[in-house]
Amino acid sequence: MLLKEEINKYLHYCKSQKELDDKTVRAYRADLEQFIALIGKNDLDKEALNSYLQHIHCMYKQKTVKRKIASVKALFHYLEEEEIVEINPFYKVKTKFKEEIILPKIIPKNIIEQFLDHLYKERGNIEYSEWHRKIVLRDIAVVETLFSTGLRISELCHLQNKYVDLRNGVLCIQGKGGKERYLQIGSSDVLSILNVYKKEFEEEIKKHGYFFVNRYGEPLSEQSARRMIHKYAEEIQADINITPHMFRHSFATYLMEEDVNIRYIQKMLGHSSITTTQIYTYVTTQKEKEILQTKHPRNKMDFR
Q1: 174 - beta bridge partners?
Q2: For 75-112, how does the pLDDT look when each residue is reduced to its tens digit (9 = 90+)?
Q3: Do 118 and 261 share a domain, yes or no?
Q4: In terms of C-beta distances under 8 Å and separation of at least 24 residues, what long-range contacts does 125-128 make, across chains too?
Q5: Do the beta carbons of residue 159 and residue 222 sit within 8 Å?
Q6: Cα–Cα distance measured from residue 58 to residue 196, given in angstroms and rounded to the nearest whole number
Q7: C-alpha span between 76 and 7 (Å, rounded)
Q8: Statement to judge: residues 76 and 152 lie in one domain
Q9: pLDDT band at 206 (very low <50, low <70, confident <90, very high)
Q10: Domain encompassing residue 131
Q11: How far apart are CA 192 and CA 179, in angstroms?
Q12: Is residue 134 part of a domain?
């Protein structure tokens, strides 16, 4: 069996039949090519597979290891279905391991408030040029959308104008794996600023159909959004490194703190499994622990 050729066929299947996005297919390709390189010309026996597992366990964090194993297992499951191999060789080895819990990083509420306050003051500053204030308006629209909807930055940058219904405050999101979900914009202030933004950038939006644009009137890239957020974080002298994804984590965590049902949060985030969403329960548990350690009156009583 020429494994390289079969991998190419499998990745084509992932893109054409499973409708996975380019980013996911590239990640699969990297994992599978690494697997080939590490296995070499060895037979796919138990010893070779255990050697591969041992190597990636030494090289990567548990979450990455889990993804790489899943990529290779999925390939052999496909080969088994297509009757190219008789049996998935990973059935021969144990791949269970305890996954470390990495808590999502969130932005403290006071810093989010400071961040937005800074942006709105920038837009209202008449000392700046009209063009500068127009760009700041776009930046406000991006940040407000990230925080109020929990969108992934990739989803925001690929959001098309035809999927934005500001009259009813609804966004139709084309998520991972072509999955579609609808998000409500629950803040009248956010809806208002998005309407102002859309009117101001109407020509640029019509030009290519994407809702968020860069300073040159082209679709906004993920890299540009990251640079923009980093720039404003430096301007307010935030003591944390703020990324677009942290707004998504903050969206979920603060809803969890308000006792919003985890199933609703799962749906809004577009998670296919509730297990993925449950990571935010650890964050709120940590917050509860901190509150009890610092605020509970028993900690201020001394009987010694």
Answers
A1: 180
A2: 888 888 888 888 777 777 776 656 566 778 999 999 99
A3: yes
A4: none
A5: no
A6: 52
A7: 10
A8: no
A9: very high
A10: 109-279
A11: 28
A12: yes
> Residue 82: which CATH number?
1.10.150.130
CB atoms within 10 A of CB 107: 23
Number of domains in the chain: 2
Q: Please indicate, yes or no, if residue 300 is contained in any of the structural domains.
A: no
Identify the pLDDT of residue 301.
64
Tell me the C-alpha distance between 218 and 67, whole Å. Answer: 34
Active-site residues: which are they? 152, 176, 245, 248, 271, 280
The answer to whether residue 26 scores a pLDDT higher than 80 is: yes
How open is the CA angle 222-267-230, to the nearest 5 degrees? 25
Phi-psi region of 209 (alpha: psi -120 to 50; beta: other; left: phi over 0): left
Burial 278-297 (b: 16+ CB within 10 A, else e): ebbeebbeeeeeeeeeeeee
- Digit-coded pLDDT (tens) for 220-241: 999 999 999 999 999 999 999 9
CB 48 within 8 A of CB 39: yes
Residue 246 CB burial class (10 angstroms; 0-12, 13-18, ≥19) = buried
- For residue 221, give the CATH number of its domain: 1.10.443.10
Phi first, then psi: what are they for 17, rounded to 5°?
A: -95, -45
Extract the tokens encoding 24. Answer: 């996911």
State the Cα–Cα distance between residues 235 and 229, nearest whole angstrom: 10
Say whether pTM exceeds 0.85.
no
Least confident of 22-36, 41-55, 144-158, 202-216: 41-55
Q: In this structure, are 20 and 161 located in the same domain?
A: no
pLDDT band, very low/low/confident/very high, at 282 (cuts 50, 70, 90): confident
Single out the residue of 106, 132, 105 nearest to residue 121, CA to CA: 132
Indicate the average pLDDT of the chain.
Answer: 87
Select from 159, 157, 176, 161 the least CA-distant residue to 222.
Answer: 157
